[in-house]
Write a structure and sequence with these properties.
Blueprint (H helix, E strand, L loop, with lengths): L13 E4 L6 H9 L4 E2 L6 H9 L8 H8 L12 H11 L4 H15 L7 E5 L7 H7 L4 E6 L2 H13 L15 H20 L6 E5 H6 L1 H11 L11 H8 L25 H4 L2 H17 L4
Parallel strand pairs: 1-3, 1-4, 2-3, 4-5
Helix pairs in contact: 3-4, 4-5, 7-8, 8-13
């Protein structure tokens, strides 16, 4: 492995946040196909290791950190060998928790042949639980919020439950009850709104799933402008790249098969025929104000 991490590792990261089933995986693939952005598959290790290692001194804690890191949920889907991590940590000797975390992402980048990038980052529906902590370590981090019509999110929740995807390893465990789905969507969206509202304007941007699907180049151009990057056509070639390079792990492709195909506008407003009138009215009664905030009528 390379004796030093790729260029860009010391930059503060970019995070994709959003409600589950809102297009976060699609957006991750699009962005990580940009030559200046590296966003690995969903991982949870920051969430679980921060409490224990956040205040410790590195590199003394490096070996213990790596030992626990490789045992965290979903980490094996990155395909990183423990020895490769140990070699990079030994070469570079991180001194802070933020450096150790960044090196893990760099190790993934090197595995994928990425020797330079401007941004590394993460996509994780669980970041809601640790967003304030992220700013402790990366005060200039940037956040991209992707929002989707909650009624269509409800359709996806119900579909995954009906297909028993929760029985698969790492399969999403979601309610199929409209009241519960609406409450979860409203809680997550409200939290994200409040969190982003406390940030500097240059630290956050929101994109609608519907705009990303119907007009990918304009939507992605806005995100590139937000990140001060030139637009790259490679982002719209995400499906071919995913099929060739397996950017999305096989373990999660069972419920993300559309990532290997063209953008599907049939996913937009499907609630009109997939939900019952009572389910639609129940969701709108709970979330009507939030839906309106994002232009969902």
């Amino acid at each position: 492995m390379k004796k030093s991490p790729p260029e860009g590792y010391q930059n503060d990261p970019v995070y994709i946040i959003g409600n589950p089933r809102s297009g976060t995986s699609l957006l991750r693939l699009m962005l990580t196909c940009h030559p200046d952005i590296l966003i690995p598959p969903e991982g949870h290790f920051f969430l679980w290791l921060e409490d224990k290692y956040g205040a410790l001194s590195f590199p003394h804690a490096s070996q213990r950190f790596i030992d626990e890191l490789v045992e965290t949920k979903k980490f094996e889907t990155w395909g990183l060998e423990k020895q490769a991590l140990e070699g990079l940590f030994a070469d570079f000797k991180p001194v802070r928790f933020r450096d150790a975390i960044a090196l893990v992402y760099c190790a993934y980048g090197l595995l994928k042949g990425r020797t330079s990038f401007r941004y590394w980052g993460d996509k994780n529906k669980l970041w809601k639980e640790k967003l304030p902590a992220v700013l402790t370590y990366y005060p200039d981090a940037k956040f991209i919020h992707i929002v989707r019509d909650g009624r269509d999110v409800a359709c996806s929740f119900k579909e995954l439950t009906a297909n028993e995807m929760h029985k698969l390893k790492y399969g999403p465990n979601m309610s199929d009850q409209i009241e519960s789905i609406a409450e979860r969507w409203a809680t997550n969206i409200t939290f994200i709104q409040q969190f982003l509202g406390a940030l500097r304007p240059e630290q956050h941007v929101t994109v609608r799933y519907e705009d990303l699907v119907t007009s990918p180049k304009p939507a992605l151009s806005i995100l590139c402008e937000f990140l001060h990057l030139e637009f790259s056509d490679s982002m719209v070639d995400y499906a071919d790249r995913n099929k060739k390079e397996k950017l999305e792990p096989e373990e999660t492709m069972h419920w993300k098969k559309k990532l290997n195909g063209d953008l599907d506008i049939a996913n937009i407003s499907k609630y009109k025929y997939a939900l019952t009138p009572l389910e639609i009215s129940t969701f709108e009664e709970k979330c009507g104000g939030l839906l309106g905030n994002y232009g969902y009528k």
